[in-house]
Target: AAA family ATPase
Amino acid sequence: MGKIIAIANQKGGVGKTTTAMNLAASLAVLEFKTLVIDADPQANTTSGVGHDPKSIENSIYECMVEEANVRESIIATEIPNLDLIPSHIDLVGAEVEMINLESREEKMKQVADQVKDDYDFIIIDCSPSLGLITINALTAADSVIIPVQCEYFALEGLGKLLNTIKIIQTRLNPKLAIEGILLTMYDVRLRLSNQVVEEVRVHFKNMVFETIIPRNVKLSEAPSYGLPAIAFDATSKGAVAYLNLANEIAEKNGIAKVAE
Ligand code: ADP
Ligand code: MG
Model:
């Protein structure tokens, strides 16, 4: 049965989408069957793994709101073992349309649960908000990864996010765990970057992943080619970091691949 991991932080530009697509691709390269669900109307994960959001048939929107067939909505990517449920700008309207639906917080869970057995990992990229779609993602998830940018105000908003997670644990999803806090866009030359790493580690201790994602231009270039970094430049620092993260997560979950 697959593990569902949401990538969430209501702050924009902290590396959620970069983490979703590159972690998913790295898990796939490690031969874990992986599904990435794009739950952001901006659809950057969708285009980042090579699909044009304008020309897709069904998105997570149709699956959640119109009960489209989930298996038929899944599309393959060029990376072996990596599938996608795409997003579409229509998802913007979903929050309003869902207001009157019964169990409106559980629509994504109903979608993910249908295909959970087909995958080792399901990674959900969230939008920069704590709205209903993100609540759906956290209700569907077994755990959450919180990317934190090694920048000014890194911890800003984190209290609110952790509080939201607590409320969801109490009311909607008692099994929701924190997989880890992920430090992103680290620049070894900047004192500030090092200060943030130290501050976050002091504050959150072993909740923080050992792997730190460096600022690396290949991570920002690869999406314009519709590729995760590992398929664009597998030896780049960014690609290697996300592969390390995938290994760390596999190990933490007791399913690391043993080299033969
Ligand atoms: P979010 O999904 O949280 O809004 P993104 O993953 O889209 O954040 O990242 C914001 C911007 O920063 C994007 O242009 C992305 O390409 C870039 N970016 C993210 N992580 C890195 C990194 N480690 N190194 C360089 N650029 C990055
Ligand atoms: Mg994003």
